[in-house]
Amino acid sequence: MNKGKIVSIHSFRGGTGKSNTTANLAAQVALAGKRVGVVDTDIQSPGIHVLFGLDENKMGKTMNDFLHGKATIREIGFSVGENAVGGEGRAKLAGQNLWLFPSSIRGREISQILKEGIDFNLLNEGLQKTITEFDLDYLFIDTHPGLNEETLLSIATSDILIIILRPDNQDLQGTSVTVDIARSLDVPNLLLMVNKALPKYDFVELKKEIEDKFNAPVTGVLPLSFDLADNASNDLFSLRYPDHEWSKALRGVADAVLATG
Amino acid sequence: MKSDILNQLQKTSMFMNLSEEALADLAVKASTRTLEKDEVLMRKGERGDSLFLIHDGWVKIVTEDSKGDELIINKCGPGETIGEMSLLDGSPRSATVIALTASEVFELKQDVFEEILDQRTDVSLAIIRSYSERLRFATTYIEKAIDWSQKTAEGDYSFVEQTQPLMNDSASNDDKAAQLLSTFFTMVRRVKEREDGLKQQLEKLTIEIDQARRKQEFEEITGTEFYANLKEQAKTLRQKRAQG
C-alpha cells in the first residue's frame, strides 16, 4: 500500500540550483527503471516544468486544483516519457515512467494558496493518492526556499529529505536549522548535497567537514559549473552531458536516494 | 696512435656500420691536433668542414646569450665527437668550441672524407644506412613526443610511470632525439609534481555556525501552535506508515 517514497528537496536560500537538481535527480531515478513523480510545490517561483519541457500555456489544471478538490490527480499528471521532446537530454526520457505534477503559475491562485494555506492531512492524502494512482516508487517534491509552513508540511511528510546547500557560511547556518527541524519531525532519511562548490576547495575534505558538522551523509559535492549555467533551464543537463563532472556527482546523489531502505 | 683513432671512430654512431678495414682506411686519413687551454677549436658561423674526435682533455661548447655573454651549452671529453654533420653538409658551425684544458683531438677533413666516399661504395652505403637508422629513430621519438604532449594536455600522466625504464636505456649522449625525449619526460614529471603540489594547496572551508542563533531560529519555528500540531500529525503518520 505505502510502497512509494516521498523525497523532498529543500534549500535554505534561493539560488542553490534546487529546481535543476530536483529535475535531474528525478530523471536519473526514472532512467534507473523506477516509476517517478515530481511535484512542484515551489509555488512562489515555479520553474521545474520548463526543464521537463512543459509549455506553460498548455498547462491545464494544477496541483492546487487537486489539493482543493477541483480536479483528479489523473488530470494533473503530465507524462514526461510520452512528451520527451525539445531537448537532447529530455529525449532520453522517452518511454520512461516519469510524471510531473505542476503547481499553479497564475499569480491569483498562488496568492490564494498562500493565504489559505494547505492542511497537512489534505496534502498528505493528496500525495499518497498520487503515489497509489500512478504506482510510484518515488515522489519528488521541489519545495521552496526557507522554512515557511508549506515547506514544513513537505518535510513532515517526507521519507527522505535532501538539503541542498552551497559551501558558504550563510547556507551552512540555515542548513543547521533545517537539519534540527528534520530531526524534530523524525524524517527517516536525511541527506545533504553540496552544490556550486568552487574548484579551490578540496571536495573530499569539504564532504568530511560538513558531515562531521551535521552528523548526516553528504551524498555529493557538485562543482560550480559555467557549462550548467550556460545550459540555463532549457534541458536536463545530466542527461545531455552525462560525462560532465556535475552529472557524475549528481548520479551519486541519485544512487544514494535509490539505496535508502 | 692510429689505433686510438680507430677505436674512437668505431664508437661514433655515423661510422658504426663500417667494417674494421674501412675504419682503418679513415683512421689513416685523420690528423692529430693539440690544443692549449682556452684555445679556440672552431668559431660559431665558420664554415664547418671537419669532424673532431676528442682523444684527451675537455672542451666547452659555447654560444652567446641575448646580452652577448658566454653561454655554455655543453662540455665534451675523451671519446666524444664534435661536428659530425659537417662532414656531409659543410654548414656553418652552430657554436664555438674552446678547450677547457690542454687537449688532443683527431681531425677528419671533409675533402679527405669525400675522397673515401668516392672510392669506396661500401663506406658510402654504410654511412647512408647509419643516417637512415638515426632518422628512423628520430621519427619514432617525435611520434612519442606528440603522443605524450596530447596526453599531458589531457592531464593523463600514466605514461610517466610506464616509460621511464625505456628512457634510461636509450638516451645516449650523441643522440639528440633521445635527449629531447628525455628532457621532455623530465619536464612532464616536474609539471605533474607541481600540479600535485597545487592540488594539495586547495583551500579548506572554515565552517562557523552560530549555535546561539541556530537555537533561537529553531525555537522560533517550533514554538508555534502550527508546529506543535504538525509534529503530532507527523508522528501519527510515521507510526501508521511503519505499521504498513
What does this 3D model show about the protein?
The complex is a heterodimer of chains A (261) and B (244). Chain A has 261 residues and is an alpha/beta fold. Chain A has one domain (5-259): P-loop containing nucleotide triphosphate hydrolases (Rossmann fold, 3-Layer(aba) Sandwich). Chain A contains 12 helices and 8 strands. Chain A has helices at residues 18-31, 48-51, 63-67, 73-76, 107-116, 120-134, 149-157, 169-184, 203-214, 226-231, 237-240, 245-259, and strands at residues 5-10, 36-40, 78-79, 98-101, 138-142, 160-165, 189-197, 218-223. In chain A, strands 3-4-2-5-1-6-7-8 form an 8-stranded mixed beta sheet, sandwiched between helices. The longest helix of chain A is centred in the C-terminal third of the chain and has 16 residues, at 169-184. Chain A starts with a strand and ends with a helix. The mean pLDDT of chain A is 86. With 244 residues, chain B is of the alpha+beta class. Chain B has 2 domains: 2-119, Jelly Rolls (Sandwich); 123-200, no CATH class. Chain B has a 4-stranded antiparallel beta sheet with strand order 1-8-3-6. In chain B, strand 4 (59-64) and strand 5 (70-76) form a beta hairpin. In chain B, helix 1 packs across helix 2, helix 4 crosses helix 5 and helix 6 (158-170) runs antiparallel to helix 7 (176-200). Mean pLDDT of chain B is 83; it is low at 165-173. Classes of the chains: A alpha/beta (261), B alpha+beta (244). The A-B interface holds A 1-2, 120-121, 124, 147, 149, 152-153, 156-157, 159, 167, 169, 172-173, 176-177, 180-181, 184-186, 188, 200-202, 205-206, 209-210, 213 and B 199, 202-205, 207-210, 213-214, 217-218, 221-222, 226-227, 229-231, 233-235, 237-238, 241, 244.
